[in-house]
From TrEMBL:
The lineage of its organism: unclassified sequences, metagenomes, ecological metagenomes. This is Uncharacterized protein. InterPro entries: HAD-like_sf (IPR036412), HAD_sf (IPR023214). It comes from marine sediment metagenome.
Amino acid sequence: MKDKTKEQLIAEIELLRKEVNELRQGYRVVYVGNGDSDILPAKYAHLILARGALLAYCRKNNLKYKSFDDFPDVVKVLKLL
């Protein structure tokens, strides 16, 4: 895996700040992801829809998640919320 540039890291931090501020404003956050880069922002979500490396991380760290195989699976879960 290639190291991230300073600009990429700053952009990720700013995105996380925005997400945390939204959580403080009463929004419910559902995060959908499948890779290592999704781990940090997913930790701030109320519900994680995961597969791949993110799914393995959620299982290992006892995070609340639902697994998915494809986009129609994601839509089904969102309709149930």
